[in-house]
Write a structure and sequence with these properties.
Layout: E1 8-11, E2 20-24, E3 38-42, E4 58-65, E5 73-78, E6 87-90, H1 91-96, E7 99-101, E8 104-110, E9 124-129
Antiparallel strand pairs: 1-9, 2-3, 4-7, 4-9, 5-6, 5-8
């Protein structure tokens, strides 16, 4: 992916779901599986829950500043990960390799065993997204 093609950059927060939810606009049904009259929205199901302006999912996480974080690891869920197979990265690795390309569900500060812990300091993590939902991802 071309990292220069983002149309929106968001500041991300720990333990928040950034997975797109389908908003149904079909008045005949509210089931997103039974209609094509729908659109994705990052955030909750209400318009007030929308995070950012673009409609696409977050495709890249950029760990811009982890300098004062005392947590040792960060667990990252892609859209299809569950708790058992989400990746756990050492903070030191992400400080040296700050860009992770993944269709982001959420991330969380953890210890080496994957147990959630407080970040322990200030951090800056950005999420990059495109204007529209991709045809294939």
């Amino acid at each position: 992916m071309n990292e220069l093609s983002s149309t929106e950059i968001l500041t991300l927060e720990n333990a928040i779901s950034y997975a797109p939810v389908w908003i149904v606009t079909d008045k005949r049904t509210s089931d997103p599986e039974k209609t094509t009259l729908k659109y994705p929205q990052v955030g909750g199901p209400d318009a007030s829950d929308k995070i950012g302006n673009a409609d696409g999912p977050i495709y890249m996480i950029e760990f811009a500043d982890l300098g004062s974080v005392t947590a040792t690891h960060i667990k990252i869920w892609g859209l299809d990960n569950d708790d058992l197979n989400a990746a756990i990265y050492p903070v030191a690795y992400l400080a040296l390799n700050p860009k992770v390309y993944v269709w982001l569900d959420q991330f969380e500060f953890t210890n080496s065993a994957g147990t959630p812990v407080a970040a322990g300091g200030a951090y800056t993590i950005f999420g990059h997204r495109k204007r529209k939902y991709p045809i294939q991802f």
